[in-house]
Amino acid sequence: LLTPNPQTLMAGIRIYVEVTLAMIKPDAMEKALEIENIILQSGFTILKKRKVHLSPEECSELYAEHSGKMFFPSLTAHMSSGPIIAMMLARNKAISYWKELLGPADSMKAKETHPNSLRAIYGTDKIRNGLHGSECFNTAEKEISLMFPAAILEPFPTDLAAKDFLSKFVNPTLLTGLTELCKEKPAEPVVSSVGESVCVCVCACGGWGGGGGWAAGEWALYNEWRIRYPLVVSE
Predict the structure, then answer these.
(1) HEC sequence for the chain
(2) Global pTM?
(3) Which CATH number does 18-147 carry?
(4) What is the C-alpha separation between 192 and 91, in angstroms, rounded?
(5) Hey, where are the domains in the chain?
(6) Edge-to-edge, what's the strand order for the sheet holding 18-24?
(7) Cα angle 31, 227, 98; round to 5
(8) Out of 5, 18, 20, 162, which residue is the most buried by the measure of CB atoms under 10 Å away?
(9) CA gap 205, 176 in Å, rounded
(10) How far apart are CA 192 and CA 9, in angstroms?
(11) What does the radius of gyration of the chain's CA atoms come to, in whole angstroms?
């Protein structure tokens, strides 16, 4: 058998962790624990969470992009009618995955086209649709700053910045780990893919670069791998 080149294995690795805002609306609060379990089982990490009763003014600011639309008064009235739970969710492609998990904004439509989506299960119509999710990067940043003013959000990395981070802090650790795996050639390897190799190397070294200190985004990525590769990662 040919021994794989660790540098070749690492060539296609890309690591991106996004953060998005999720809210459980007043009409779905009775199922909050059930919804949170689904969120965690779907590979998300809940970085921050708070239960709050928003004022009509706060709701108007949160949904300012819809100001002037016919449903705006009903939306703000509903969102201020009772407590909600706001969460900062993190994972790879968090914004798009959360939107996919939510389904269409109109729960009636969701029940027809996406019956397994959260809004189909926990919502009833376009206003009382159970949950909220940020639409894009810009709205996620704005909504998180409103709901979690103390949160420090790192900017989403440019391709150049991401490559520089990988080169300085990730690749050396991965190269060391993958080299050792190739040398050992275990009879019953638990590593069967590049993604699992990444996970083993990072976890074995205690974090990016082996420093032992894990930032929130790193824990989010670790938790995603822990769910995706349960046989590889141990606590």
Answers:
(1) CCCCCHHHHHCCCCCCCEEEEEEECHHHHHHHHHHHHHHHHCCCEEEEEEEECCCHHHHHHHCHHHCCCCCHHHHHHHHCCCCEEEEEEEECCHHHHHHHHHCCCCHHHHHHHCCCCHHHHHCCCCCCCCEEECCCHHHHHHHHHHHCCCCCCCCCCCHHHHHHHHHHHHHHHHHHHHHHHHHHCCCCCCCCCHHHHHHHHHHHCCCHHHCCCCCHHHHHHHHHHHHHCCCCCCC
(2) 0.63
(3) 3.30.70.141
(4) 22
(5) 6-13+157-228, 18-147
(6) 45-52, 84-91, 18-24, 131-133
(7) 50
(8) 20
(9) 10
(10) 12
(11) 21
- Report the candidate in 74, 44, 41 with the shortest Cα–Cα distance to residue 59: 74
Amino acid 56 reads P
Q: How far apart are CA 62 and CA 228, in angstroms?
A: 34
Cβ neighbours of 69 (radius 10 Å): 11
Instruction: For residues 15 and 157, give the distance between their C-alpha atoms in angstroms, rounded to a whole number.
Output: 10
**Paired tokens of 93:** 């492609």
Q: How crowded is residue 111: how many other Cβ atoms within 10 Å of its Cβ?
A: 17
Q: Name the catalytic one among 53, 66, 114, 132.
A: 132
Tens-place pLDDT, residues 188-220: 555 444 444 444 444 444 444 444 444 555 555
Active-site residue, 114 included:
no
- Quick one: which of 165, 205, 158, 161 has its CA closest to 181? 205
